[in-house]
């Protein structure tokens, strides 16, 4: 009877995950979908605690003190961290939580491996692979987290491709030896763990900011797979469906993002998008002169425009300028100017990063245009204001085959009448590529921190 | 070798593999119709769902004998980290989506 209730709870859990993901893909139902999945998860967790029994010995779980202690600590810390985090640091938070999941899968495998009972080959496969993928995901997520919050700088490691390849090969060989029972030396197992950690670190280390969304999404699907291996190990359907769903959904999301940047997943994985290649290209280019525009002139230009498009980028997120941006939009609308936002799919550090950010500042949903729509309207715009975006408006993606971002679809801002670029300095963007847009005749530069500039612009506009 | 072939003759593994294959297609089906606006919350929601790995941690923890302190410590850590993933993931996702719904009412 108890096992029937347990299986029923797992079935309900699996169904809520599917329905939850489905609902998450529509704006109206998204929030409810998240709650549905959370409810299913809670049911599955408590059913496991009270009803699960060992298939061989028919013993129930014990150590309730430890289990509930862990659950309570995890819940309190998780809730606090998630509630306190700034909207702009969301991406690194997701990366951090993802790493926790990976570490959890790694620890499960570690404990299972230490158990004295003999394991079948099938069990050994899932233990080793669960540990391997969990560790890569954990180490990689930690590096992604450190890079996103600026603690770890981009670093091109000489011969990184070769090292990664060797590490990967080494892991496969050792995994085959452990699984196939060719060697029962436990150090071999711990060796895989060490190599997997090194691989996770080295594989995220050289990847530039432009690729970070892809990496997080990929690591997300890795953790999903690691969770699914746990499902195999315990013959547990809810872990299996949950893990695989995320694994396949994450992979699709990753591929969609790669497509948006016109790069293959292989290219991202090998991590050839390091700084040195981009630097070499930029070095050969002759730098032209750029012209600056004053706040006052910008205000006048915008006040007398009919249509203005704002293009946000990571700079907006860093400066926490989303509210100031909405403020500007309101002032302009009062003056009868039509304002819209052009959102590039990979602007920021995560897909939809800009949407979330602007939603926080109550920018109406309809004002956010996706790239194709924005480009269709571009020719009728009088002023385009670029706020801390760089690579997504770089014309080199269209006309410089030597550029590392060549072929990536961009927002074609040059079709508009005036282009105003707000940046803190002339330094190249996160991907380290020089942007020729800044030297084009239509472009004027408005230097300064996005938030400060927007606030000043609003007060200027009120006086116009 | 016998061990290896047993993986393919055991009906239980076929049941699991069936679940895996169906879930793969489900995941693809569900995701391919998402507007890009929702990509971040969706990624975050999926992130919370793979926290289901905490169930494995609970099973490991609940079976550890009470004098195996290494297993208890590692298991405890696994439960804490897994719970962080689940709870943190769902709360962060809810916070993101809260902003979408607030704006909808206007």
Secondary structure: elements and pairs:
The complex is a heterodimer of chains A (464) and B (106).
Chain A: H1 2-24, H2 30-51, H3 64-84, H4 90-114, H5 121-148, H6 160-179, H7 186-204, H8 212-233, H9 237-260, H10 265-270, H11 275-284, H12 295-303, E1 307-312, H13 314-318, H14 322-334, E2 338-343, H15 353-360, E3 368-370, H16 371-377, E4 383-387, H17 396-399, E5 418-423, E6 443-447, H18 450-463
Parallel strand pairs in A: 1-2, 1-4, 2-3, 4-5, 5-6
Helix pairs in contact in A: 1-2, 1-9, 4-5, 4-8, 5-6, 5-7, 5-8, 6-7, 8-9, 12-18, 14-18
Chain B: H1 2-9, H2 11-31, H3 39-49, H4 54-63, H5 69-105
Helix pairs in contact in B: 3-5, 4-5
What does this structure look like?
The complex is a heterodimer of chains A (464) and B (106). The relative contact order of chain A is 0.09. The longest helix of chain A has 28 residues, at 121-148. Chain A is elongated. Chain A has helices at residues 2-24, 30-51, 64-84, 90-114, 121-148, 160-179, 186-204, 212-233, 237-260, 265-270, 275-284, 295-303, 314-318, 322-334, 353-360, 371-377, 396-399, 450-463, and strands spanning 307-312, 338-343, 368-370, 383-387, 418-423, 443-447. Chain A is built from 18 helices and 6 strands. Chain A has a 6-stranded parallel sheet. With 106 residues, chain B is mainly alpha-helical. Chain B has 5 helices and no strands. Chain B has helices spanning 2-9, 11-31, 39-49, 54-63, 69-105. In chain B, α3 (39-49) packs antiparallel against α5 (69-105) and α4 runs antiparallel to α5. Chains A and B meet through α1, α2, α3, α4 and α5 of A and α1, α2, α3, α4 and α5 of B.
């Amino acid at each position: 009877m108890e096992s029937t209730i347990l299986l029923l709870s797992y079935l309900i859990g699996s169904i809520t995950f599917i329905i939850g993901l489905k609902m998450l893909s529509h704006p109206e139902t998204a929030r409810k979908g998240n709650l549905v999945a959370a409810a299913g998860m809670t049911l599955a967790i408590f059913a496991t605690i009270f009803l699960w029994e060992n298939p061989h010995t028919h013993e129930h779980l014990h150590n309730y003190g430890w289990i509930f202690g862990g659950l309570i600590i995890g819940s309190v810390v998780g809730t606090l961290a998630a509630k306190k985090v700034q909207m702009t640091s969301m991406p690194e938070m997701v990366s951090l939580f993802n790493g926790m999941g990976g570490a959890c899968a790694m620890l499960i495998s570690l404990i299972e491996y230490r158990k004295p009972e003999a394991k079948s080959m099938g069990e050994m496969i899932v233990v080793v692979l669960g540990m391997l993928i969990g560790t890569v995901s954990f180490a990689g997520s930690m590096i992604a987290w450190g890079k996103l919050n600026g603690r770890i700088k981009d670093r091109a490691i000489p011969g990184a491709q070769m090292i990664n390849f060797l590490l990967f090969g080494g892991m496969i060989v050792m995994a085959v030896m452990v699984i196939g029972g060719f060697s029962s030396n436990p150090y071999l197992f711990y060796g895989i763990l060490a190599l997997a950690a090194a691989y996770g670190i080295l594989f995220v280390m050289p990847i530039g900011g432009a690729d970070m969304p892809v990496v997080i999404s990929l690591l997300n699907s890795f953790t999903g797979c690691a969770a699914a291996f746990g499902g195999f190990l315990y013959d547990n359907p809810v872990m299996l469906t949950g893990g695989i769903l995320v694994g396949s959904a994450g992979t699709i999301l990753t591929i969609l993002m790669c497509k948006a940047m016109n790069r293959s997943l292989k290219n991202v994985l090998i991590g050839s998008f390091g700084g040195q290649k981009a630097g070499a290209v930029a070095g050969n280019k002759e730098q032209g002169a750029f012209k600056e525009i004053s706040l006052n002139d910008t205000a006048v230009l915008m006040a007398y425009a009919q249509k203005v498009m704002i293009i946000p980028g990571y700079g907006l997120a860093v400066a926490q300028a989303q509210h100031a941006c909405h403020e500007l939009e309101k002032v302009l609308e009062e003056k009868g100017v039509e304002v819209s936002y052009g959102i590039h799919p990979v602007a920021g550090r995560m897909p939809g990063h800009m949407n979330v950010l602007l939603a926080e500042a109550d920018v109406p949903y309809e004002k956010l245009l996706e790239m194709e729509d924005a480009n269709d309207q571009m020719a009728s715009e009088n002023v385009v204001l670029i706020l801390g975006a760089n690579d997504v408006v770089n014309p080199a993606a269209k006309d410089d085959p030597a550029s590392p971002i060549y072929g990536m679809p961009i927002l074609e801002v040059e079709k508009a009448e005036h282009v105003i670029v707000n940046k803190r300095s002339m330094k190249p963007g996160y991907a380290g590529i020089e942007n020729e847009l800044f030297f084009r005749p239509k472009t004027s530069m408005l230097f300064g921190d996005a938030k400060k500039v927007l606030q000043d612009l609003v007060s200027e506009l009120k006086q116009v | 070798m016998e061990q290896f072939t047993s993986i393919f003759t055991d009906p239980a593994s076929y049941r699991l593999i069936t679940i895996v294959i169906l879930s793969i297609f489900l995941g693809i089906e569900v995701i391919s119709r998402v507007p890009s606006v929702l990509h971040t919350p969706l990624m975050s929601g999926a992130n919370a769902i793979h926290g289901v790995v905490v169930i494995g941690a609970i099973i490991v923890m609940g079976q550890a004998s009470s004098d195996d302190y290494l297993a208890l410590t590692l298991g405890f850590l696994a439960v804490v980290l897994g719970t962080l993933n689940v709870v943190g993931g769902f709360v962060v996702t809810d916070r993101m989506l809260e902003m979408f719904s607030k704006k909808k009412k206007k």
